[in-house]
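User: Before I run my own analysis I want an independent prediction to cross-check against. Here's the chain; please return only the structure tokens and, at the end, one sentence I can use as a sanity check.
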Amino acid sequence: MKLIRTEEAVGHVLCHDMTQIIPGEYKGARFRKGHIVTAEDIPVLLSMGKEHLYVWELTEGKLHENEAAVRLAELCGSEGMKLSEAKEGKIELSAAIDGCFLLDSERLLRVNMVDEVMIATRRGGTAVKAGDKLAGTRVIPLIIDERRLQEAEEAAGKAPLMRVLPYKLKTAAIVTTGSEVKKGLIQDRFTPVVKEKLASFGIETIAGELPGDDTEEVTASIQRMKDSGADIILCTGGMSVDPDDNTPGAIRKSGARVVSYGTPVLPGAMFLMGYYPDGRPVLGLPGCVMFAMETVFDLLLPRIAAGVELTKRDIALLGEEGLLQARGRAASKF
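Assistant: Structure tokens:
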């Protein structure tokens, strides 16, 4: 920190707030700590009686907090996002579109292990609306050693840490199993719930059938739904271990590659995730989807709707925070 004449302060960083008083009009901080003095600021500072200023001495290899925040924000990326201006060492990122917010959690952790820098985000894999806040970057000190930023950049790697993808899937077909539904003994409560959830992501249900429980009939029904041209096939019910529950077998017989049958999420443990050779997803939905407010289906649907191909690892990672009842969001909605 050093004291210099105000006229010589252009380009220097203020060490403390500067209060301006205009009798009867205004009293408050006219310039904040960390502000970089410009030529336009000089007459204002002099009018405030500030003929000398305490400023930070920016030496080679040191960065102002705003410049450092910009470099942190560049690690985050820009796809489907917009950035605020740097202010007091902070930049906020928000969604520019409706879509799915994706995040590389492992690389984010490596960045946040670097001293004196931070990036805070919302949880990855979630649905966002345009304008939603996604992340914020900040450095801890007012002036930071550039080596800290270089460490953060090395930890982040070349690829952006996050992005927002627009929803890609547009149409769906639903196979609702169960002989009791096919015979009309009970009302089909599954299809309306699933259609509503899909519609919230802009997905229109264009076909549906009630094939009963016979594996061959369910398999044939799934094939007809594939032939409908739908972007995603959903099979509801028949996902447990009862002898008459043949939906997983029918999905396999229909030509799907099953990524995972069973998930570390409650409710939703009996969920099936698969893909056909053309990349179209096929889902086996357990009965809880019909009545619980949030299940594994809700956790994965944003990524599925955005066309992200899920892996066994993606699903296994849901185990942490997978006890949805403990989050108070698994109560009946329908």
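Sanity check: The first strand starts at residue 2 and ends at 5.
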